[in-house]
C-alpha cells in the first residue's frame, strides 16, 4: 500500500497547490495535499466557456430581433425553451471553474496519531448500516457489508458497527450472530495476509489477485480453508429463513393458543419482539417494539494475539490481533399513526442510540449493498477531519459511489462519471460536495445541528436543549462528549437504566415537538433527504471534502435493469423539484453559504425542469405539420425565392 493513496506527483492534468503557512499554535504537518488543474488546461477551458457564453447571448439577440410573426406562439414557446437551456447550462458551468483534488497523506496521519509503542490517538468512528427487507435487499449483501467493516484497517477499539433493521425481522438478527462467528476467522485472516477487499464475496469472486502480505508460504492453505468456511457460512445464511420457520412451527405446536396466533420464536425459546413470519398485532411491518442488542461487546484496549496452529486449530494466528469491533443490532419502534420517515428516521434513531453506547465523534453511513473496498478508507477520511488547518470546519467527507456487476457499455449510466469525477471535484473548490446518501463520514456535531467553531458560542448549555433534542437526560449530556474528538471509547455496560433509556430513544413519540428531522439529524419529508441534509449543513457554514482514492474506498450494487434505473432517476428528479419548492431552496440560504455553492444547489434542484422543454422540442415538428408554421425564421428566404 503506497503512503499516499492517490498519486500526488505532478501529472499531465494535476499540479500541487502551494499550501499556506501553518497555524501559529500548531506544529502538526498538513494531513492532505491539494491539487489543482494545470493552467495550460484550465485557462483554455475557461476561455472556451466564455466564448460559448458570448455565442449563446448573440444567438438570443438574433432570435429576439428576428422573431417569426407568422407563428408568434410557436416562436415564444421555443424562445422560453432556449432561454431555459442557456440558463441551465450557465448554472451548470459556474461552479466548475475551479476543480480541486485533495489527496490524503497516510504517512502523516500515522506519524501524528499512531506511535511505534502501540499507542493510538485516532478518534472513534461509529459505522451505520441500514436495511429493511431481507428479500428486496438480499441478506448476503448485508452480511458482506458488516464483515468488511469489522475487518477494516482501523484500530479495533476505535470503531463500532451498527445495523439498523427497519423491518424488525428475526432473520437479520440471527444473521448478525452468524457474522460474529465467522468474523472470528475472517478478520484475523484479513489482518494476517493484508487482504483487499475485505468483503469475502467480492474477494473470493476474483480468481487471481496480487498477494501483498508477508506470509505467502501460509497463504494458500489459509485461503483454501477460509474459502471453504465461507461457503459453509453462506449455506447457513441462506438456510436461516427455513431454520426460523421450522423452529417457530415446532414451538407453536407446543404452545397452541385458542386465538390461533402463530408467533416467531428465537433460538433461546422466547418470542421475537419484532415482525413475525405470520404477522399479528404488534408484530407486523409498521407495528412492532423497539429492539437493541449488543452482538459483540466493546473490545479491550490491549491487543489479544491468537494461538499457533494445532490439531484442533489449523490456522496460525500467533502474532495476529484477534479482537473484533463492537457490533450492535437495532430496530426502532414502529406504531400505526406515525410517519416513520423511512431511511432518515432510522438514521436519526441510530444517531441517538449510538450516543449512549459508543458516542464516537465521527460516523460513517452505508447502504446495506455497499462494502469497504479499500481498508485504508477510514484513515483517508480522517486526514481531512483532523487536518490542523481546515479539519475543524469540515462537516463531512464524501467518497464517490463505485459499483460492481455493471455491463462494459454501462447502458444505464450507473457509473455517472461526469457527476462523480467532474461536478464533485469542481465543488471541492468551493464549499464542498453535496451529501450523496452513502459512503460518507460525518462529524457528529454537524449532524446535531451545531454551528462550525468560528460561529459557535463558547459555552453550550445542553441543559436547555430538551425542546430541541428530546427529553433524554443521558442523551443530552452525551452530546458534549461526542463533540470532543479526542475522547476514547469506553467499554459498554448495559445497566437497566441505560437499557430503558435506549428503548425511549427509539420510540415513535420521542421526536414529537423536537427539532429532529428539521434542524437536527437527517432531514424529513423529502425524497432526496441526503442532498437536503447536506444543504442544511452547508447553510450553517460548514464545509465538506470530496475524496476519490485508488483503489475505490467503497463499492456497491447498482440497478441492473431499466425499470429500477428509471425509478431511481424519477425519485431523484422528484426530490430535486421538491427541494426547489421548499424552505430548502438555495435562494433562501443565509450569508454563510458560498455564492457559487448556492448556484450549485440551485442547479441540482432545477435540472429536472429541462425535461419539459426537451419534450416540447420533440413535439415542435408535429406542430409544424399541423399548423404549417415554423417557430424560427426561414433562413435566406429571399435567396431561396430567387433561385426557385
TrEMBL record:
Active site positions, chain numbering: 166, 530
Topological type in the membrane: Multi-pass membrane protein
Parts of the chain that traverse the membrane: 45-64, 71-91, 607-626
CC per GO annotation: Golgi membrane
Keyword list, A-Z: Cell wall biogenesis/degradation, Glycosyltransferase, Golgi apparatus, Membrane, Transferase, Transmembrane, Transmembrane helix
GO terms (BP aspect): cell wall organization; cellulose biosynthetic process; plant-type cell wall organization or biogenesis
Sites where the protein binds Mn(2+): 343, 367
Coiled-coil regions listed: none
Pfam families assigned: Cellulose_synt (PF03552)
Compartment list: Golgi apparatus membrane
Residues annotated to bind UDP-alpha-D-glucose: 137, 166, 342
Entry superkingdom: Eukaryota
Protein name: Cellulose synthase-like protein D3
Primary localization: Golgi
Gene Ontology molecular function, alphabetical: cellulose synthase (UDP-forming) activity
Amino acid at each position: 500500500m503506497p503512503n499516499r493513496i492517490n498519486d500526488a506527483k505532478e501529472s499531465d492534468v494535476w499540479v500541487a497547490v502551494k499550501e499556506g503557512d501553518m497555524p501559529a499554535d500548531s506544529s502538526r504537518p498538513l494531513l492532505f495535499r491539494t491539487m489543482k488543474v494545470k493552467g495550460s488546461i484550465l485557462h483554455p477551458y475557461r476561455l472556451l466557456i466564455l466564448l460559448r457564453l458570448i455565442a449563446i447571448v448573440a444567438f438570443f439577440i438574433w432570435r429576439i430581433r428576428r422573431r417569426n410573426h407568422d407563428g408568434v406562439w410557436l416562436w415564444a414557446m421555443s424562445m422560453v425553451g432556449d432561454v431555459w437551456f442557456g440558463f441551465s447550462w450557465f448554472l451548470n458551468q459556474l461552479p466548475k471553474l475551479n476543480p480541486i483534488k485533495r489527496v490524503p497523506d497516510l504517512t502523516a496521519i500515522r506519524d501524528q496519531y499512531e506511535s511505534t509503542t502501540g499507542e493510538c490517538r485516532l478518534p472513534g468512528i461509529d459505522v451505520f448500516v441500514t436495511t429493511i427487507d431481507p428479500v428486496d435487499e438480499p441478506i448476503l449483501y448485508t452480511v458482506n457489508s458488516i464483515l468488511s467493516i469489522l475487518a477494516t484497517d482501523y484500530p479495533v477499539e476505535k470503531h463500532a458497527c451498527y445495523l439498523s433493521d427497519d423491518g424488525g425481522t428475526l432473520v437479520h438478527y440471527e444473521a448478525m450472530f452468524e457474522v460474529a462467528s465467522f468474523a472470528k476467522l475472517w478478520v484475523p485472516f484479513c489482518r494476517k495476509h493484508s487482504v483487499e477487499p475485505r468483503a469475502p464475496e467480492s474477494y473470493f469472486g476474483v480468481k487471481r489477485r496480487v498477494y501483498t502480505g508477508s506470509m505467502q508460504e501460509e497463504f494458500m492453505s489459509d485461503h483454501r480453508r477460509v474459502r471453504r468456511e465461507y461457503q459453509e457460512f453462506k449455506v447457513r445464511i441462506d438456510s436461516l429463513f427455513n431454520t426460523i420457520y421450522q423452529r417457530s412451527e415446532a414451538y407453536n405446536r407446543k404452545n397452541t393458543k385458542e386465538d390461533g396466533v402463530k408467533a416467531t420464536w428465537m433460538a433461546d425459546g422466547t418470542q421475537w419482539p419484532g415482525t413475525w413470519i405470520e404477522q399479528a398485532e404488534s408484530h407486523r411491518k409498521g407495528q412492532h417494539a423497539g429492539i437493541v442488542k449488543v452482538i459483540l461487546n466493546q473490545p479491550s484496549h490491549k491487543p489479544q494475539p491468537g494461538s499457533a496452529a494445532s490439531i484442533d486449530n489449523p490456522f496460525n494466528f500467533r502474532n495476529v490481533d484477534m479482537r473484533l469491533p463492537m457490533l450492535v443490532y437495532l430496530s426502532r419502534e414502529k406504531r400505526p399513526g406515525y410517519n416513520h420517515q423511512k431511511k432518515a428516521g432510522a438514521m436519526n434513531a441510530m444517531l441517538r442510540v449510538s450516543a449512549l453506547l459508543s458516542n464516537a465523534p465521527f460516523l460513517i453511513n452505508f447502504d446495506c449493498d455497499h462494502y469497504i473496498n479499500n481498508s485504508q478508507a477510514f484513515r483517508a477520511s480522517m486526514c481531512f477531519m483532523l487536518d490542523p488547518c481546515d479539519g475543524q470546519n469540515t462537516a463531512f467527507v464524501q467518497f464517490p459511489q463505485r459499483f460492481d456487476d455493471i455491463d462494459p457499455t454501462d447502458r444505464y449510466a450507473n457509473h455517472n462519471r461526469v457527476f462523480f469525477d467532474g461536478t464533485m471535484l469542481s465543488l471541492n473548490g468551493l464549499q464542498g460536495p453535496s451529501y450523496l446518501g452513502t459512503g460518507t463520514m460525518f462529524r457528529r456535531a454537524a449532524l446535531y445541528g451545531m454551528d462550525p467553531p468560528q460561529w459557535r458560542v463558547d459555552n453550550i448549555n445542553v441543559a436547555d436543549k430538551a425542546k430541541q433534542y428530546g427529553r433524554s437526560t443521558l442523551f443530552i449530556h452525551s452530546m458534549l462528549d461526542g463533540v470532543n474528538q479526542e475522547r476514547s471509547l469506553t467499554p459498554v455496560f448495559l445497566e437497566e437504566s441505560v437499557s430503558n433509556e435506549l428503548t425511549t430513544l427509539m420510540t415513535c413519540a420521542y421526536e414529537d415537538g423536537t427539532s429532529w428531522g428539521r434542524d437536527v439529524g437527517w432531514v424529513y419529508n423529502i425524497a432526496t433527504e441526503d442532498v437536503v441534509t447536506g444543504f442544511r449543513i452547508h447553510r450553517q457554514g460548514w464545509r465538506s471534502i470530496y475524496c476519490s482514492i485508488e483503489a475505490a474506498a467503497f463499492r456497491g450494487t447498482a440497478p441492473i435493469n431499466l425499470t429500477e434505473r428509471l425509478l431511481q432517476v424519477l425519485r431523484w428528479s422528484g426530490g430535486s423539484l421538491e427541494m426547489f419548492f421548499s424552505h430548502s431552496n438555495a435562494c433562501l440560504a443565509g450569508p454563510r453559504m458560498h455564492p457559487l455553492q448556492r448556484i450549485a444547489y440551485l442547479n441540482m434542484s432545477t435540472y429536472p425542469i429541462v425535461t419539459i422543454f426537451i419534450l416540447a422540442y420533440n413535439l415542435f415538428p408535429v406542430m409544424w405539420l399541423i399548423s404549417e408554421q415554423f417557430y424560427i425564421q426561414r433562413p435566406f428566404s429571399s435567396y431561396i425565392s430567387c433561385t426557385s
